[in-house]
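Reviewer 2 asked us to include a model.

Predict the structure of this chain.
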Amino acid sequence: QVHLVESGGGLVQTGGSLRLSCAATGAQFENWEMSWYRQAPGKGREWVAAIRIGGDIQYAESVRGRFTASGDGTKNTVYLQMNSLKPEDSGVYYCKLPISSWGQGTQVTVSS
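Predicted model (structure tokens):
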């Protein structure tokens, strides 16, 4: 059974940075594309980025140039470095493999 645990969220001011982590057990994420999503209160889940180790990294237009996805195969963990954060980046952030269910997410709150 694949299990994903997101961490690293918190409260930051506009312009601040956070680094999210997603640790995977039960599957080697190197064999899959890992995606990041976020969900703001009252809104649907929004795709943020996708990373495949050794392959392309893709970003939503709203975060391109500010967010950077990366991975560490030795730790079976992917990261999302978020810089120049804006209030509209606030929400619960999730990581997801095609073969996994949704985790509990990690809350990001950017104050204005």
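The beta strands are 3-7, 10-13, 18-25, 34-39, 45-51, 57-59, 67-72, 77-82, 91-96, 106-111. The chain has a mean pLDDT of 93. We have added this to the supplementary material.
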